[in-house]
Design goal:
The protein has 126 residues and is α+β, with helices and mostly antiparallel strands. It has one domain: ADP-ribosylation fold, CATH 3.20.170. It is 21% helix and 29% strand. A four-stranded antiparallel β-sheet has the order 4-1-5-9. It has a three-stranded antiparallel β-sheet with strand order 3-7-6. Strand 6 and strand 7 form a beta hairpin.
Length: 126
């Protein structure tokens, strides 16, 4: 197992279906785009702020990228950063952890301690 995990945010209801089926197909956005969107720890909070702000009932799925094989591609996206994209379904047995992703009072998600907080450019830590 590598020491670097990648992360995906999903609806609790979608994850419950995945646990019954043994695989997760991704969100509606993933299905539309043809791949499952993942983020590194450094990318995750900004991705959540841009695409999932205010959404309740989300879970944070962590996975070792080495467990995904050749179906995982690192592709340029926002600001030419390389983002992990999974082309195919996710076998739930490959998931390292699943955690609740609560909302803070500011409408942004509160991440486990391993995820650095996101601040818009020019905003310093309080």
């Amino acid at each position: 197992m590598s020491n670097r995990l990648i992360f995906h945010m999903c609806k609790r209801s979608d994850w419950q279906v995945a646990q019954q089926d043994g695989f997760y197909q991704g969100s509606g956005d993933d299905l539309r785009d043809g791949f499952m969107h993942f983020s590194t720890a450094e990318q995750l909070a900004e991705s959540a702020a841009k695409h999932r702000a205010g959404i309740t009932g989300l879970l944070l799925i962590a996975i070792d990228p080495d467990d995904l094989g050749e179906a995982l591609k690192w592709e340029p996206s926002r600001g030419d950063q390389l983002f992990p994209h999974l082309y195919g379904v996710l076998d739930v047995s490959k998931v390292a952890s699943v955690e609740e992703l609560p909302l803070g009072e500011d409408g942004l998600h509160v991440f486990p301690g391993i995820i650095p907080p996101w601040r818009p450019a020019g905003v310093e830590n309080p």
